[in-house]
Specification:
Layout lengths: L4 H19 L6 H17 L8 H15 L6 E2 L2 E2 L4 H15 L2 H9 L1 H25 L4 H11 L7 H7 L4 H25 L9 H25 L5 H25 L1 H32 L4 H12 L3 H10 L8 H22 L6
Antiparallel strand pairs: 1-2
């Protein structure tokens, strides 16, 4: 689109209007103005090669802003509590993930076991331990602290594959790490939460294991079967699934944000700081962890992104299953959008620099 710069001017005008309204203490339409500003910015960056990865993140930020300002509209509709949507939406997203992977993704473990092993070790050791350390250091309330450990104990984030592609990293390795880590999370996440999250609240690892089976494994298996026997025969569904997944992620963040809006307004800035430390330290550790074991530049970039990004949607789903969406679900609600911002920035940085052999 030739006139995509118009979207940037519109967003700038909306952000300026937000500032004026705030100065005049006319707060009724603040949320609407800033949300529309982010949506316009999303349309603008979508048409740029370097920053297109930020487009969906801008949509998420728009959703968060509108929800924080008008949470009452996103808690229940007609007596139906919207948090009941979280689990089925996560299952749909996991099904969509299953349709995008195949058995060849797991065969790559045998083809490049060193890189896969290093990526998995880095992801499931450094990130949960860093989450535990930060939750302890900042002295959060027990259930919020457990939520930070929970997001740190998640498998690799779904958006990591897009970031790896933009970063000119090893996309095949990225897909493999995401797939294998999601399967391993069935066992590792309950274990890590029992050992680390259990320092803050009581964790029933067996219940969490069952929840992950329901939320992750069954939908992914169905997606794999769809990939093998049906995909390609229903082209409309193949095209629809990525959009459905993005809609699902946005809806989950809206519901979690609405449920914990009061707490977010007070501890949100601190959670953003913790998210930044957790996220960026994961990128640094992943990259140099790969370097220590003499992996190539493309593989090191991939491991940096895979270690640094977690599946925030799954963390939100587990928090809801445990009946703690408004407390344990707060960290995933903040970490999810923020890691997409930092991931996009890192991917854009690497996109301009060809990886050396």
């Amino acid at each position: 689109m030739k006139n995509y710069k118009l979207y940037f001017y519109i967003s700038l005008a909306l952000f300026a209007l937000t500032g004026i309204l705030y100065a005049l203490q006319q707060t009724s339409f603040l949320g609407l103005c800033i949300s529309l500003g982010f949506l316009s910015l999303s349309l603008g960056v979508k048409h740029t090669k370097t920053y297109q990865g930020l487009s969906f993140t801008m949509v998420i930020l728009a959703c968060v802003c509108i929800t924080l300002n008008y949470p009452q509209y996103f808690i229940e509709i007609g007596g139906f509590k919207l948090k009941g949507l979280i689990t089925p939406l996560i299952q749909i997203i996991m099904f969509g993930m299953g349709t995008e992977i195949g058995l060849q993704d797991f065969k790559r473990v045998a083809e490049q076991p060193k890189a896969v092993f290093i990526g998995l070790i880095g992801h499931f050791t450094f990130m949960p331990l860093m989450g535990f350390a930060l939750a302890t250091l900042f002295n959060f309330e027990p259930e919020i602290a457990a939520g930070i450990v929970l997001i740190g104990s998640m498998p690799c984030g779904l958006a990591s594959n897009v970031m790896s592609y933009l970063a000119k990293a090893n996309l095949a390795l990225s897909v493999t790490l995401t797939s294998v880590s999601t399967i391993l999370a069935t066992f590792l996440t309950p274990f890590l939460m029992k050992v680390l999250g259990g320092q803050f609240i009581e964790i029933k690892a067996s219940d969490m294991f069952v929840h992950i089976l329901q939320i992750v494994i069954v939908p992914i298996v169905l997606g794999l079967l769809f990939n093998k026997y049906i995909k390609g025969k229903t082209t409309w569904l193949d095209k629809l699934m990525p959009s459905v997944s993005m809609f699902g992620i946005a809806t989950i963040i809206i519901v979690i944000t609405a449920a914990g809006s009061k707490s977010l307004l007070t501890i949100g800035p601190l959670l953003i700081l913790v998210s930044f430390i957790h996220n960026t330290s994961g990128y640094l550790f992943g990259y140099w962890f790969g370097r220590v074991f003499k992996l190539g530049e493309k593989d090191c970039r991939t491991i940096a992104i895979e270690v640094g990004m977690q599946n925030g949607g799954l963390a939100s789903g587990l928090a809801e299953k445990l009946g703690k969406a408004a407390t344990m679900g707060l960290a995933p609600a903040v970490f999810g959008p923020f890691m997409n911002i930092t991931g996009s920035i890192l991917a854009s940085y690497w996109h301009k620099r060809e990886p050396k052999n």
